[in-house]
Amino acid sequence: MVKTTLKIAAVAAVAAIGIMPAAGPAMADPVSVNDKVSKALVFLNMTITGQVQIPFTSGARWSQDVQTGGTCTGYIVDKTGFIATAGHCVYTGGESMKNQLRQQAIVALAQQQGRDATWATNIYRQAINQSWAVRGSGGDGDRPSVSVRVKQPSGPNQVVREWTTVQVLASQSFMEGDNAVLKMNTPPGELTALPISAVVPKPGEAVTSVGFPGQVRRVSDDMTLPQPSFKTGTVSSRQQNPNGVAQTEVSATIGKGMSGGPTVNANGEVIGTNSMKTVSQEETSEFGFVTDNIALRHYLQGNGATLVSAESGESSGLNMWVWLGPLIGIVALLLLAGLVLGLKRMSNSSPAAQAYPAPQGPGSGVPGATGGQSAPPQNPFGPTPGS
Q1: In this structure, are residues 52 and 134 in contact, taking their beta carbons and an 8 Å threshold?
Q2: Which of 61, 73, 95, 275 has the highest CB neighbour number within 10 Å of its CB?
Q3: Domain enclosing residue 124, as ranges
Q4: Whole-angstrom Cα distance, residue 75 to residue 260?
Q5: How many angstroms separate the CA atoms of 17 and 21, rounded?
Q6: pLDDT tier at 28 (50, 70, 90 boundaries)?
Q7: Which residue spans traverse the membrane (predicted)?
Q8: Is residue 334 located within the same domain as residue 197?
Q9: Measuring CA to CA, which residue among 237, 233, 288 is closest to residue 264?
Q10: Domain count, the chain
């Protein structure tokens, strides 16, 4: 009977351990993750203004203010109004942004002088080769001026309903890291901020790149902002640019206009800001890159942002069974051990065991027995309290 009971107890304990879910990475609901990311996204509209020095034959002269613009994506990282985006979206110290202003100055000059497109194209090439000087709006500073407005698309996640001007706190070039920090001084309501992962992403990890691609905007109503696009993929590799700055390669498609948006892991943590894509002439596939999340954390914190933490357990990618599963197993084993010990003690004190008492007296082999005296009776339930 005892052996049968022990077998039943052992089987029950094994069954209890066997039904525990296996510990592993938390797989957050994709719908809830996408919804949370959508709440933090903002559409960026940039206006760059500057003056270009044109080398006329009579002498170099500065043009009137000329403007260019563009759109990007950003995402909120601090509920007080801090926004992260790609540096190249707002960085005005690079040649790419200056070339856009040079082109606009030449177009205006061609219109003034009645020149054709061929003449303008040749002059533009000259401007690039000679690196015509560019300065800020109204001659202020040695860099073009940039104005950024943000808004969120209509829908249940919209908090920033009107175009709101934000301040550019800091920005980097491509080679420096391609990060930028913007600040909304007066948020119109409660904002949702995305956590920045503190763990270096691993190849093969599932990710989603999010943003407002220009191709989608072309087919949407121009009177309203497009809804964000979610492009899934995996982490392909970790690379470094010639300056030694880390980048993460992802297989998710990063379209034009998605620059500055977040690429998130399965838990909705940002593993990098959408930075660039390259297309090889020998291959048709695209190679997308996002900024390094560790450098991004330091950059945001260095410019005043207070980063939010991931939800309980998500930052490390673990769920509750990682600690709850082993705990239940330990409890089950302790209960089994207690049950076995109790059954053994009961078997020792059963009537069958007491039917044939051991002989008493000298040489009986009973510990503690002395001539003519019997050993004290054993307590089948262990020592008495206080003993």
Answers
A1: yes
A2: 73
A3: 30-302
A4: 8
A5: 9
A6: low
A7: 320-343
A8: no
A9: 233
A10: 2
Please report which confidence band the pLDDT of residue 286 belongs to, taking 50, 70 and 90 as the band edges: confident
Is-contact 276 174, C-beta < 8 A? yes
In Å, the largest CA–CA distance within the chain is: 135
Q: Which residue is it, tokens 């003993």?
A: 387
- Secondary structure of residue 27 in the 3-state scheme: coil
- Alpha-carbon gap, residue 308 to 327, rounded angstroms: 30
Dihedral sign for Cα 114, 116, 117, 123, please. Answer: negative
Rounded to whole angstroms, the Cα distance separating 276 from 271 reads: 15
Shared domain check, 339 and 278: no
Can you give the three-state secondary structure of 303-361, one letter per residue? CCCCCCCCCCCCCCCECCHHHHHHHHHHHHHHHHHHHHHHHHHHHHCCHHHHCCCCCCC
pLDDT tens readout for residues 222-258 = 567 889 999 999 999 999 988 999 999 999 999 889 9
Q: What is the mean pLDDT of residues 356-376?
A: 40
Q: Residues 299-304: what's their mean pLDDT?
A: 98
Which residue do the tokens 């759109």 mark? 71
Burial class of residue 258 (count of CB atoms within 10 Å of its CB; 0-12, 13-18, 19+):
buried
Same domain, 52 and 151: yes
